[in-house]
Amino acid sequence: MFEQNLTSEPFTVTTVTSQDQITQKPLRDSVKASLKNYLAQLNGQDVNDLYELVLAEVEQPMLDMVMQYTRGNQTRAANMMGINRGTLRKKLKKYGMN
Fold first, then answer.
1. What are the residue ranges of helices labelled H in 25-73?
2. Which residues touch 75 (CB under 8 Å, ≥6 apart)?
3. Per-residue b/e over 11-25, b at no fewer than 16 CB within 10 Å?
4. Considering its fold, how many domains does the chain have in total?
5. Within 13 Å, how many C-alpha atoms sit on residue 12's CB side?
6. Do 29 and 60 fall into the same domain?
7. Cβ–Cβ contacts within 10 Å for residue 37, how many?
8. Confidence of residue 54 (pLDDT cuts 50, 70, 90)
């Protein structure tokens, strides 16, 4: 789960350890760690669509949560995301969310 933290990093990831300790770290750290793990698993293989892969992993859940937050109001969601409503509609269609 992530939440906006207005005093420091824009987004943080909150995790609970097995000892019930709560930790927070910037979302970018989680993305970096995930990418490092993914690249290590490639074991020297080439990959051609890494940008699209990462973008899809972040974009789809973001669209889902923003659409839930705006109760399906595409105009409000597009404004919230800082994109054109037509662009939002294309992205929703891309992920089968229309």
1. 27-42, 50-69
2. 85
3. ebbeeeeeeeeeeee
4. 2
5. 12
6. no
7. 9
8. very high
Domain CATH code at residue 78: 1.10.10.60
Q: Which domain holds residue 25?
A: 1-43
In the numeric block, which tokens belong to residue 60?
Answer: 């789809």
Which tens digits make up the pLDDT trace of 2-34?
444 444 557 787 878 788 888 888 889 999 999
**C-alpha span between 91 and 43 (Å, rounded):** 32
69 and 28 within one domain: no
Give phi and psi for 75, each to the nearest 5: -65, -45
pLDDT, residue 98, reads 84
